[in-house]
Amino acid sequence: MVDEEFEIIPVNPIRRLEKRIERLESYSVEDPKSIFKDIIEIVRMNQQIVDELAKSNDALRIELSKLPGKMDELITDMRQLIAFIKASGDSEQVGFDPNIMKPVVEKLEDLVQVNKTLAEKNDAMMELFDEVNKRLKRPQTQPSTIPVLQQMQKPPLPVRPALPPQPIPPHPTQPVNTQKQLR
């Protein structure tokens, strides 16, 4: 890659120069005075462009010369911030007392023990559920004849004749209706 220098150039004067050059190229040789006038104007415009470029380059140099000082300020501010953060971290570590956290640690230990017992009980419940599930899924290889034999040995229930429906007497806490019902 070739090192090239770049400059900030205003575009409007360059465009005007390009238009004038196009007009010069389009002129005929018959009018030499207008060509010289255009050339003089082009030289003037070129000089204006050079002046503007010099001014913009100077302004850019001035701004760039300010950057190292600002970078140094930024670096010192960052170092101060880091020193402040380190100092605040050290002061917090020195003031840390393990007795302050002792009740919290005890509570956490209690919670751990409770969780362990709950986990053990859950494991036992799961084992019971597995056992019940195995018993329910166990296939019966021989049909049981004992219930059938017991049913055969039981005497049949006596059959009672159907009685006509009896009216239900009123509840003692309810008032008795003494009027006859209409049909």
Provide the descriptors you would attach to this structure in a database record.
single chain; 183 residues; mainly alpha; 2 domains; 0% strand
Structural class: mainly alpha
Beta content comes to under 5%
Low-confidence sequence ranges = none
Distance linking N and C termini: 120 Å
Output mean pLDDT: 77
The number of helical runs is 4
Largest sheet: none
Architecture overview:
By secondary structure, the protein is mostly helical. It is built from 4 helices and no strands. The model has no long low-confidence stretch (mean pLDDT 77). Helix 1 runs antiparallel to helix 2. The chain has 2 domains: 90 residues; 39 residues. It is elongated, with a radius of gyration of 55 Å. Helices cover 69% and strands 0% of the residues.
Please sum up the structure shown.
This protein is mainly α and 183 residues long. The chain has 4 helices and no strands.
Question: What is this structure's SSE topology?
Answer:
Blueprint: H1 11-26, H2 32-94, H3 98-137, H4 146-153
